[in-house]
Amino acid sequence: MTTATPSVTDLKLKRKSRILEVSFDNGEQYQLSCEMLRVYSPSAEVHGHGNPKLVTHKKNVNISAIEPVGNYAVKIVFDDGHDTGLFSWKVLYDLATHQVDLWEKYLARLRAEKASREPLIAMNIKYN
């Protein structure tokens, strides 16, 4: 028996804390960091051809725009220029419900490849 993926009912971007709050029609609500969304972007650029690229230096990345795509997804535009990949409700739900495990895997991969989350250049951005 397959369960349908819940639909997103609300997205609230908290720029200062770099958090996207996602509410689903099953009553669940999650907070996803902009960094997590960026490093797990469903784009071909990140996923390649079955060989996911390690995305680094995105600790301070933020979202500059969220554009609806039909009634099943959003396109997220990040302030580092990345704007490909559609975040379907299923992708958002999977990221939200598995974020602890996914984040640990990401950190382990960073350590294994001696990579960093830290930005390459210091940026002072103020949001009103």
TrEMBL record:
It comes from the Bacteria. Gene3D superfamilies: 3.30.2020.30. Residues 12-93 form the Gamma-butyrobetaine hydroxylase-like N-terminal domain. Keywords: Iron, Metal-binding. The keyword Transcription regulation does not apply. One of its GO terms (molecular function) is metal ion binding. This is DUF971 domain-containing protein. It comes from Shewanella septentrionalis.
